[in-house]
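[step 3/7] fold_predict: job queued, chain A
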Amino acid sequence: MENNFDLGIIGGGPAGYSAAIRAAQKGLSVIIFEKEQMGGVCLNKGCIPTKTILHCSDFYKNLKKAEKFGIEISDKSYNYEKIFNRKNEIVEKLQKSLTKLVQSYGVEIINAEAKIDAKDKIEADGKVYQCKNMILATGSKPAQLKDLERDGKFILNSDDILNLSQLPENILITGSGAIGVEWARIFSSLDKNVTVVELADRLLPAADADVSKRLDRLFKKSGIKFFTGAKVDSISNKTVTLSNGQILNPDIILCAAGREPVLPEGIGFEKDGRFVKVNNNFQTNYENIYAIGDINGKMQLAHSAVHQAISVVDFIAGNKQVHFDILRVPSVIYGNPEIAWIGKTEEMLAGIDYKVSTFPVSALGKAFADDEIDGFVKVLSVDNKIAGAHIVCPEASSLIHQFSLMIDNELKTEDILNTVFAHPTYSEAVFESILGMEGLSLSLPPVKLL
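[step 4/7] structure written:
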């Protein structure tokens, strides 16, 4: 039949398009429904546009210390409208490229809102499509806090902030997760006054405590003001009163307090709180319907969604059981320096016999050459295997994958030390942090091990 498919996918973000390509590679007939632009939040309203702006702000920040490198530049300034336009151009190019890529695999794309009529039927744009299996990859949207509802003018969410072609001078950010921290770094690097308010008792509460402490130091160094254990208590005529009594007068408020799932229309699904409930193979209460990415609440990261997509399609095509472990998914906070972590924190290892080694970036020749000496690589091990790694360092987004491979393959520390790490690189900090487990660092004075 004309409208019969092995797999119907709702949502064209990283979870959806990755599943579509993988399924086509496996020989399945695939149709994907996307009511907006291909690429989802990541490409259109998240990862890519934000990192494009962030790279521009970091570039400008580095220009301001050009003299330190013997480079003389008389006029160090920026035009945010041009940055804004560059962001749009890159997103548009990637949208077109992604659409062509998916279509090159023979996947049919329907640009319309989809509704699930039955466990094997999807309706869109007046037509009904029969789908043997379905994948729900509808993503998420910015969450709204009570008494801090978005108005798009004074109170903005992470979508709104990307639509500003000019930046105000004074910005208040609520929340210090990835979104809040990255935008604080962008605004600060572009010479704006930034204040961050975090309800938890420390910045970046999901990270290891030592990472939070270092971020505290980095914020102070950058002139970013912040209040922890606090929240917005009231707003009157753009005057903001915090729960700790502080009074602020920002030009805008960026609400960066997380995201909530976008649920598909049609038949209902069992829930786990706000999210769609799934089993270990990401099946919903309908065994032929799967929920991947942000809507299942496992981990709201694009690369996590891609991994889920590949694993679920392999299960559908070949009944290969899904193996997904949150502790084996790296997290990255972009900016200067980058922050990344994987595995367990020291708090998680309380009561367990473990080793910890922290190597300061300032002990690297490469860091001095780059004038990037503020950071560290911290590694945790249990039974001579890596249990967790936490990095504040240039190139942390790349370095973390070295630890990811170690953890996934359950390598013993003595085996890792047989690897040759090039000099001078930031990767030497990975090598040195593992050497430090036994007090054998080649770049630090001797220490007495407990």
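[step 5/7] annotate
The longest strand covers residues 127-136.
The first helix runs from residue 14 to 25.
exit 0
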